[in-house]
Design brief:
Elements (H helix, E strand, L loop, with lengths): L1 E5 L3 H12 L3 E5 L2 H10 L1 E5 L6 E3 L3 E2 L8 E4 L6 H7 L6 E5 L7 H7 L4 E4 L5 E4 L2 E4 L4 H5 L2 E4 L7 H12 L4 E3 L3 H22 L2 H5 L2 H16 L12 H4 L2 H12 L2 H4 L8 H19 L2
Helix pairs in contact: 7-9, 7-13, 9-11
Bound molecules: NADP nicotinamide-adenine-dinucleotide phosphate (NAP).
The site of NADP nicotinamide-adenine-dinucleotide phosphate (NAP) has 27 residues, from helix 1, helix 2, helix 3, strand 9 and helix 13.
Length: 290
């Protein structure tokens, strides 16, 4: 597969390196200092705090060049608009692998509706200078598949091809027939979670503040209640039906867990704040149109 990974941060770098190692014709689009670092030594990555850093010589580009079988967009929500403009004249299907609660319409309106696929990356991690530190897989994360879907939910030959190609690189991808609802459900939950963790100064500080966790849960419930469809996965419905006290206790326990502490919830970067802001706007706009 001829693949362009657009965005050389945590998720894009991992995707490009894995696909390159699996023998695909993968290149990685970067800018600024990241571009210079990648040109010097390729993608460098390490498991969590391990001192062992691997280097993968993925070809790096500054602009899309020619056509691709697939362009995977791995940028933050608020960075998508600029990317769309640059993909107008570039041939190929485009898979948006990111937090997105505005549906496929605004994406297709710029690049062509027939080109759009939606998905969400499950290979998380953090950036440590120019080293991508990815989370070690555990029993739970191995069971979480990377969902990818057509906007209309069909299982098409191109969707099957993409899932197969990702699997050749050891990525646990799966076709998701309700991808837009999946992304909106995820945003309904993760945006209040991210905002509350950010405001508190991290997940553990948030766990210590029972009232803040209760307010966050109420926002999640409001968001879930405003969805046009039942939540996907259905398990998220429990956030509306289980007793508030029980959920607050479970959320506080989760916020103190290594999974939460090592996740993006501890990330106080301007990019994270800007992404959460844009996601909140998308959720509000979705609520207003119903
Ligand atoms: N990291 C995780 O653990 C994780 C887990 C699940 C989901 N996600 C989601 O996945 C998406 C991507 O996250 P991420 O962690 O990979 O973000 P990230 O580390 O911030 O990477 C985004 C990269 O894209 C680059 N970029 C943005 N606009 C660009 C443009 N116009 N041209 C060239 N490069 C551009 C950024 O460059 P600059 O730095 O110069 O802006 C940055 O290198 C987000 O929606 C995030 O919420 C992340």
């Amino acid at each position: 597969m001829k693949l362009l990974v657009y965005g050389a941060g945590v998720t894009g770098s991992q995707l490009a390196a894995r696909m390159h190692e699996a023998g695909h014709d993968a290149s990685l689009l970067a800018r600024g200092e990241r571009l210079a670092a990648l040109r010097r030594h390729g993608v460098r990555f390490a498991e969590e705090d391990s001192p062992t850093v691997r280097q993968v010589p993925v070809p790096v580009v500054e602009h899309p060049a020619g056509g691709y079988d697939l362009v995977a967009v791995c940028v933050r929500t608020h960075q998508v608009d600029a990317v769309l403009e640059s993909l107008v004249g570039v041939e190929g299907d485009v898979l948006f692998l990111l937090n997105w609660a505005a549906g496929p319409q605004p994406l297709g309106a710029v690049i062509g509706h027939e080109r759009v696929l939606l998905g969400f990356p499950t290979d998380g991690g953090t950036m440590d200078d120019d080293v991508v530190r990815y989370r070690a897989a555990n029993f739970l994360t191995r069971r979480v598949a990377m969902p990818i879907g057509e906007p209309d939910g069909r299982t098409t030959p191109r969707l099957e091809r993409i899932v197969r190609a990702l699997r050749t690189a050891g990525i646990n991808a799966k076709a998701e027939p309700r991808m837009d609802a999946w992304l909106r459900t995820h945003a309904a939950f993760s945006e209040p979670l991210g905002q509350a963790a950010h405001a508190a100064g991290g997940p553990v500080a948030l766990a210590d503040d029972r009232d803040a966790v209760r307010s966050m849960l109420r926002l999640m419930r409001q968001n879930l209640a405003a969805l046009a469809t039942p939540p996907v996965p259905r398990g998220f419905a429990a956030l509306r039906t289980l007793p508030e006290g029980l959920l607050v206790a479970l959320l506080r326990r989760f916020l103190r867990s290594p999974t939460a502490v090592q996740s993006g919830l501890s990330d106080t970067s301007p990019a994270t704040a800007a992404e959460l802001q844009r996601l909140a706007e998308q959720i509000r706009a979705g609520t207003r149109t119903r």
